Amino acid sequence: MAGPFIFVFTGTSGSGRKTIAHRIGEELGIEHVLSYTTRPPRDTEPPDRDYHYITRERFEAMERCGEFVETAVIGRERYGLRTQELFKPIQEGRHAYVILNSEGASILKRLYGEQVVRLFLYVDKRTVKERLETKGMPVDVIDRYLGLYTEEVVYRKQCEHVIENMTMNRSLEQIRTAIQSHL
Ligand SMILES: Nc1ncnc2c1ncn2[C@@H]1O[C@H](COP(=O)(O)OP(=O)(O)OP(=O)(O)O)[C@@H](O)[C@H]1O
Ligand SMILES: Nc1nc2c(ncn2[C@@H]2O[C@H](COP(=O)(O)O)[C@@H](O)[C@H]2O)c(=O)[nH]1
């Protein structure tokens, strides 16, 4: 077996990255390394599943201590991956997955090369809107996601795997195949 690998789920906002990543991670026994964020949890998000939610003060203190491998500013909020959490599974010989925007995905790729596999998920804009409305996402967040779409979708050209997430079972099958091609 090669690796261990860091599988990076990236793509257009609202494309289903979290849903697909958690399903595949659970099925294949790949560990989720959560990002830290200063943004508050949304009503639709179970506590502690998607992020470590922390205050801005704590985020900035961690940043000053050099604890993050990468950080991003999105809107007014901060996001970051803690180096020691990312490398714990890797050092112990286990694969890990993270969910990042294109900026974070590029940084990890630059730093860790072939150990990083980027899986780009996308759907068309109308589907993003429909799914997020159904999920009960606030209108301002949906509008922000849709506003980012054109800028985000071009990153697919740089990713190792590109999946259009229209049908859950088909996407899961494509991602399973993509991941297994590295193992
Ligand atoms: N293949 C699919 N078919 C139908 N609905 C889906 C599919 N994949 C995901 N969804 C639904 O779309 C919604 C958005 O998915 P999810 O929150 O996983 O997206 P995301 O890309 O992680 O969003 P974010 O940009 O907030 O990180 C959820 O309600 C999810 O259940
Ligand atoms: N570069 C990073 N991007 C991250 C990180 N954690 C999440 N994200 C991405 O941010 C946006 C916004 O997420 P939302 O949950 O607030 O809607 C989305 O694209 C995430 O994938 C991170 O640590 N670094």
TrEMBL record:
Its EC number is 2.7.4.8. The keyword Repeat does not apply. The keyword Kinase applies. Residues 4-180 form the Guanylate kinase-like domain. Keywords: Kinase, Transferase. SMART domains: GuKc. Coiled coil: none annotated. One of its GO terms (molecular function) is GMP kinase activity. PROSITE patterns: GUANYLATE_KINASE_2. Pfam families: Guanylate_kin. One of its GO terms (cellular component) is cytosol. InterPro entries: GK/Ca_channel_bsu, Guanylate_kin-like_dom, P-loop_NTPase. It catalyses: GMP + ATP = GDP + ADP. Essential for recycling GMP and indirectly, cGMP. Belongs to the guanylate kinase family. This is Guanylate kinase.
